[in-house]
Amino acid sequence: MVKQNMDGEDKKSVRQRLLMQQLGAQRYISLEEVSSRFSVTQQTARRDIMELEKLGKLRRLHGGAMVANSIDPNELRSRRIRNAQAKERIGACVADLIDDGASIFLDTGTTCEAVARALVRRKNLRVLSYSLRIAAYLSEVTDFTIAVPGGFVRQVDGGVFQEQSRSFISGFKFDISILSVSGVDDEGDLGDDDQAEVETVQCAMRQSQKVLLAVDSSKFGHRGLVRLGTLSDVHMLVSDAPPSDAIALAVKKGSLTFHCAR
């Protein structure tokens, strides 16, 4: 017989509710922590995470889980307005650097959405993106070949995530990966705020002949929560203004090409 608490919840429901509360506070939780915190086996912890993922309440990662929506909706709306003209110029500059017929990985986010809008003047592109927003836009206004990984859709920005996304991406080869980040610090490290996105982008970078980083200048000198890589992993940097002296030095050490979108 399943024991219930005074509110009619069984042990599993209580455990999953408390798991979600903990996840809301720290945004990521490992299988080991779930197992230890709730005194269950890792198999039980994994089943809890899989059930909650099916309900769209979290995103399963290798070895743990994170919140389903890692970007606050208000923050995303603010990003769409912030530096909008600079992002449009960046998008136009990026499109000038892309050859017709290229195979492309295109990151998610407002800067990459601006890139997508500019890419419509190119021909015969093959694009993989885990942004449904980008994929839907390009499929409506171009005849490009579009690919998206399967998984759960993050409602706030249309990002698609699942633990198998990386294995899906690893089956492709790209001429170029176009990505954006939350920050480029003075040491030249690239940072973002979402572990799942970082792992997805890192996979695409490994499958790419070249990597292009598109960021507006407000990102220079800022540090993201999760380290994606360094400027030495990038072949081209596109921004609306030159970086600080410290980052410019890192750019020089990395031997990448800087393009200023005027």
UniProtKB/TrEMBL annotation:
Phylogenetic lineage: Bacteria, Pseudomonadati, Pseudomonadota, Alphaproteobacteria, Rhodobacterales
Sorted UniProt keywords: DNA-binding, Repressor, Transcription, Transcription regulation
InterPro entries: Carb_Metab_HTH_regulators, DeoR-like_C, DeoR_HTH, NagB/RpiA_transferase-like, Tscrpt_reg_HTH_DeoR_CS, WH_DNA-bd_sf
Keyword flag Repressor: yes
A UniProt-annotated Pfam family: DeoRC
Protein name as it appears in the record: HTH deoR-type domain-containing protein
Alphabetical list of SUPFAM superfamilies matching this protein: NagB/RpiA/CoA transferase-like, Winged helix' DNA-binding domain
Gene Ontology molecular function terms on file: DNA binding; DNA-binding transcription factor activity
HTH deoR-type domain span: 12-67
